[in-house]
Design a protein that fits this description.
Distance between the termini: 67 Å
Low-confidence stretches: 1-6
Strand order of the largest sheet: 1-30-29-28
Oligomer: single chain
Number of helices: 2
């Protein structure tokens, strides 16, 4: 029998993964949700009917997943494989391999490529129209300065965040070398990178409870806009406890964004006005991943312990679906003081 939690948390999906959730993402075409997990599974849910539509397995933990279109998707595994799935037929095959666990996978609608980042310190681009396992499926391999931790796409731009606080920005139309090589403005290890929907820059989060807002424009005026801020921290008895910020998700309509931390909170931010818009009630454990639906009316929240405090008893992994109120995500207009009389 399903456990019913307070409505403040949102609606809980049935049949969640049995081990740590690594990512979840909504389809761009429906309310289908794809979820990857340490239990070696990739799961497809129909959120509107709260039904598990399909389940696919790797030979090891699945570290990331994404949609190709509403009928197919990709996953990245600790078993070094990149896999693709046809949801309607239940068929799957191996698109290709890395020499180490594959941490990230994204699909570029602009170029029709699947893009993967691995702990083997490479980025690879794949043509999903090729036959799985065939060399001609791989269209390029690009060395990175360190292990790849996070990828994000907007239009023809790809942002790659690696260990060692390196950030490479590519133009997918010319992958011969990065368009920009940067160092994160945050002092500690990067957890997540996410591009602004308007294509002007990207947000980075770190293990040290901070988010940095970066811009692609390298002019002095463009770089003057960047800033960072503290978040996901708690103060008790004069002592600050700092939590990693695991995930960043931008609202597709308003460009505001949500962050999820190991403190179990989801915060919504207005980056332009440098304000927090909303904080949801605390979830049972760490927030491992977030995703807004295509129309921004739903937010999927993965409440899943991320082992930042080592192996200990923790709440079961769960996926919650929140109905989003416009007031929680819409930027508030700036109020300017009246001119002197």
């Amino acid at each position: 029998m399903a456990v019913v939690l307070p409505s403040a948390s949102g609606r809980e999906l049935l049949n969640p993964p049995s081990d740590g959730i690594t990512n979840l993402c909504f389809s761009n075409h429906s309310d289908h949700l794809l979820v990857s997990s340490w239990d070696k599974s990739v799961r497809l849910y129909d959120v509107s009917s709260n039904v598990l539509r399909g389940e696919f397995l790797h030979d090891g933990a699945v570290l990331d997943c994404c949609f190709h279109d509403d009928s197919s998707g990709f996953s990245a595994g600790r078993d070094h494989t990149v896999r693709r799935y046809a949801f309607s037929s239940g068929k799957e095959d191996i698109l290709g391999w890395h020499k180490a666990p594959v941490r990230c996978v994204e699909y570029s609608y602009a170029t029709g490529q699947a893009i993967t980042g691995s702990w083997d310190k490479t980025l690879k681009c794949w043509d999903p129209r090729g036959a799985g396992g065939q060399e001609h499926t791989l269209t390029g391999t690009y060395p990175q300065p360190e292990r790849v931790y996070s990828l994000s796409l907007v239009g023809h731009r790809l942002v790659v965040a690696t260990a060692g606080r390196h950030v490479n920005v590519y133009d997918l139309r010319n992958m011969s070398q990065p368009e920009q090589r940067r160092e994160s403005s945050l002092k500690y290890q990067t957890r997540c990178v996410s591009c602004y929907p308007n294509g002007t820059g990207f947000a980075l989060s770190s293990v040290e409870g901070r988010v940095a807002m970066e811009f692609f424009d390298l002019s002095e005026a463009g770089q003057a806009k960047k800033y960072s801020f503290k978040c996901h921290r708690q103060s008790e008895n004069g002592k600050d406890t700092v939590y990693p910020v695991n995930t960043i998700a931008f609202h597709p309509i308003y460009g505001t964004f949500a962050t999820g931390g190991c403190d179990g909170y989801v915060n919504v931010w207005d980056g332009n006005n440098k304000k927090r818009l909303y904080q949801y009630s605390r979830y049972p454990t760490s927030i491992a991943a977030l995703s807004f639906s295509r129309d921004g009316c739903l937010l999927a929240v993965a409440s899943s312990y991320t082992y930042e405090e080592g192996d200990k008893l923790h709440e079961p992994d769960a996926i919650f679906i929140r109905n989003i109120n416009e007031a929680e995500v819409k930027p508030k207009p700036k109020v300017y003081p009246a001119p002197p009389a």
